[in-house]
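Hello again, I could really use a second opinion on something today. I've dropped the whole record in just underneath, so have a look.
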Amino acid sequence: MQAPRFFALALIALATLAIPASATTLVRQGIDRLTVENETVVHGRVLDIRSYWNDDHTFILTDVRVRPARVLKGQPGGDVTFTVMGGSVGEISTVIVGGADLVPGSEYMLFLGRVDLPGAANRLTVRDHAQGVFDIVKGHARSQAIGEPLLPDAQGRTEAEGGEEGIPLEELVRQISAHLNR
């Protein structure tokens, strides 16, 4: 009776050792799911970021303000502000492995949805982490999930949308629009 239980626990322990402690693994999301499952899709430039402690002083959050060039889904009108987990306050930093990496002055395609963050309920955020952010450089969109370990989607694909080379921005916009019109 004890041997099977010990064997099962030993297998679980060995499997756990094979997983790096700092790894974040996400299920691959295609443009279709990113578009349909998020409430806001915006192409814009980050104006500023502000990091702060949550109300409980247990976690650092960062508010990001974006000036939209285009709102493809959601309520148009004015700047968009959303919150991401992590950031720096004074000498303390919280880093989210596989999270969005946003820099003031840079241009992005952002897929945003509402979720509860640590100590901050119902916040508009990049809920799909690095998969929900595409860097826009010279008219080309490249997923920030490139290089992140992604579990296969329903079709068995594991590479971030657009692959290493990314996708032309206007093609990404066309694909998003096509999924919105279904």
About this structure: The helical segments are 2-17, 31-37, 169-180. The mean pLDDT is 87. The first strand starts at residue 26 and ends at 27. The chain has one domain: 23-180.
